[in-house]
Amino acid sequence: MPTGSHLTTARFMSYVIFFVISLPFISIRPHRLQWFLNSTSLVALVFYIALLIWALSTMGPSGFGSTITEDKPNPPSGPNSTAWVMVSGIVATVGSIAAGILNQNDYTRLARSSRDAKWGQIIAYPVYSIGTSIVGILVVAATQDRLGTEHWYLPGLLAHLVRKDPTPAARAGVFFSGLALTFSQLGSNVLGNALAGGIDLAAVFPRYLNIRRGAYITAILSPIVNPWRMVDTATVFISVMSGYGVFLAPMTGMMVASYYVVHRQKLDVDDLFRGNSSSKYWYSRGINWRAPISWAIGVGPCVPGFVTSVNSSVIVPDSIRELYMTNYLYGFFSSALVFVALHAIFPVRVVDEFVKNELSAAELQQYYSDRWDVSLAESERIVANFIQEEDKNEERRTVGRETETGPEAETKEMRRRVAYADV
User: Fold this and answer.
1) Are 243 and 96 in contact (CB under 8 A)?
2) Percentage of the chain modeled with pLDDT above 70
3) 144 is in which domain, residue-wise?
4) Where are the transmembrane segments (predicted)?
5) Rounded mean pLDDT of 90-95?
6) Is the separation of the CB atoms in 150 and 66 below 8 Å?
7) Can you give the pTM of this predicted structure?
8) CA 353 to chain centre
9) Do 226 and 243 belong to one domain?
10) How many CB atoms are closer than 10 A to CB 1?
């Protein structure tokens, strides 16, 4: 491969093979992936426990390496102080699951109840985000002295073991470790990357794309971001993980503020699927201009710190670096506050009237649950009745004038697409 690409021919071929293996799983409908995701999660858990046991049991008399034992004093203040390093580590950990936090509703909607979704996240996120970080630190510290280097990149560790001890037993152990790692990563890749992108694209272009098509488009475009460079070194990897929070935390903050503060948990579900000015959520030509302004305020101040974390040649004041170290907290709360303030200063009359009606949030949720929460077998009948009802309403609106084409036809097609969503 070209010099400076941070990629060898072997690694690129591995990427291509993994890409091809992922494609069949992308074609499976999300609600039918539970068995696959449960399997990958179990395999990942067993693999990491086995890896930790192996690393600790074969550590030898030298014990842990300098990753843990080195007593390197930190300055009393500034971004390199102990306090700020701890803050940075916490934010990086949250940033590593920022995409999952933002997109979790794509999958929790398939849960039997909201309680199941809550408990699943409360248990799973800490175990896998914090647990894997602890395992990684311990494995690196337990192997660095005997291997002569720190291996933060797990495939690099496995490759080093084969080179150091090319016996059949070692090769078999590395093979099955790589197989387990590949299988576990399939779950993360399909769920967190391909399908998440497919769901977003299907929502933006419902007339042309379903979830499956959007997922394949996401997969085809994936090489553009040079994903192999994101795991080149531990420093780059941590910077990338933290960087997710810079861009995704403001979105999450706005979503929380929108649902709990602006809309007070009251949403007109029917209007969410009306793609024209008849929807109370149409705002200004389909765009709520308050959102991009709030997002920019949450992202902008953290960008210089993000740049210097990736490229150390860029020098910024310590205060900018410290702000970046709190990027998830700053982005979440600043965007949420600005979003609420803009809605208070520039209210949307039809939305406020709906929020202030006499029905409580619980009553509205129960109404729409009874209306739309149906089994897959019943969905075709329910959706057909909804479309028939909408067609009758449209006929009443167009009595005495020529029936509109174009946007109206597109709206009906969008409703059908969103209702079925090919899932």
Assistant:
1) no
2) 84
3) 1-231
4) 12-28, 35-56, 83-102, 122-142, 236-262, 293-316, 328-346
5) 85
6) no
7) 0.77
8) 33
9) no
10) 12
